[in-house]
């Protein structure tokens, strides 16, 4: 692997041909936002609508936002088209996003029924499919719908995005909502990066994210400015690429709420709580991602009631928090891996590698803080992924979700066949 100081950012969406297939469901009203967001991120977008979808979302709006004519049922057998439209669209697409997928179109696909422009396009394409059903909870639970869904999930190159929980248009609360456009965008990134192959399927991953807070009294604490965005992005991207993910996180800020929707989450506050939550889950997973910015110190004295400011201990005695990553890594089996993060001033590889060895990590992301466009609290991030033997891969300054995708792409192959040579050394 070559050394790359700052490679060009690679958002998998840029320049890619994405066909958005919209079915008849009230959730179709979210599609203009998704199409707009895809175009803004540099994708080429075309839309195809089922006959019912036209009643829920304006073809004119989708045409305007995609800068392309919107493909409707009436266009399929247009005598001015030299080739069948469903074949043209099927061959054009590098990825087809079916959102929302209705129960009717699901049944058509499961049965191979090519009786609409949209279903014939989906049957004709060889591009990967990202499918996001949305419907009433009882419909989603109906045995016939479930059977069709299981059939569809067996298709090759298909990434499923299951409905999320919340208030539905029928006024009930339950599972059935279309994932938010922001979450769909991340699913599209994962599908484009992997060619629709769920490359982390079969892996169980434990992630930590966010800062911890160490309270002095109910209104004062020691913490740091981590938003948690990088750790949650690692968890989300692993989940969208097929892994079963548990996320243990401190107080989050500036993380899109929808990123948490598909994750199994455990919110904690202090380093001690985070340590307990991670240790409980550790035996069941294949690997650990330690992206949390654990506070290094906790107050040496605490009070359950607010201290008047004049009574505050001054100087404040401090005590070190446990090094969670090192403690967890020391307990791991030989077939379990751990990816750490190192927040360093500048690109100090030697310091990051020293941390990797001291904490028994298998890889470490050197995450420079204090540089423009990188690090804590920033929207973009960047750095270098380091292997224990000194190999490295540069991570351009980019959106944290894209960076998380690049890290998983670099490691996916190794994770499935991970086995340490010999057991991890015990702690001394
Ligand atoms: N970490 C941890 N527990 C701590 C401190 C850090 O588990 N009490 C983990 C972080 O999640 C990260 C790695 O250790 O994966 C490195 O964290 P970093 O803040 O870069 O290093 P520190 O060990 O805190 O050392 P320093 O602050 O001196 O650089």
UniProtKB/TrEMBL annotation:
Residues 200-412 form the DNA/pantothenate metabolism flavoprotein C-terminal domain. The active site is at residue 170. Residues 1-204 are annotated as: Phosphopantothenoylcysteine decarboxylase. InterPro entries: CoaB-like_sf, CoaBC, DNA/pantothenate-metab_flavo_C, Flavin_trans-like, Flavoprotein. Gene3D superfamilies: CoaB-like, Flavin prenyltransferase-like. Residues 205-428 are annotated as: Phosphopantothenate--cysteine ligase. GO terms for molecular function: FMN binding; metal ion binding; phosphopantothenate--cysteine ligase activity; phosphopantothenoylcysteine decarboxylase activity. One of its GO terms (cellular component) is phosphopantothenoylcysteine decarboxylase complex. CTP binds at residues 296, 306, 341, 355, 359. It comes from the Bacteria. Keywords: Decarboxylase, Flavoprotein, FMN, Ligase, Lyase, Magnesium, Metal-binding, Multifunctional enzyme. Its EC number is 4.1.1.36, 6.3.2.5. In the C-terminal section; belongs to the PPC synthetase family. In the N-terminal section; belongs to the HFCD (homo-oligomeric flavin containing Cys decarboxylase) superfamily. PANTHER family: HOMO-OLIGOMERIC FLAVIN CONTAINING CYS DECARBOXYLASE FAMILY, PHOSPHOPANTOTHENOYLCYSTEINE DECARBOXYLASE. Catalyzes two steps in the biosynthesis of coenzyme A. In the first step cysteine is conjugated to 4'-phosphopantothenate to form 4-phosphopantothenoylcysteine, in the latter compound is decarboxylated to form 4'-phosphopantotheine. Catalyzes two sequential steps in the biosynthesis of coenzyme A. In the first step cysteine is conjugated to 4'-phosphopantothenate to form 4-phosphopantothenoylcysteine. In the second step the latter compound is decarboxylated to form 4'-phosphopantotheine. This is Coenzyme A biosynthesis bifunctional protein CoaBC.
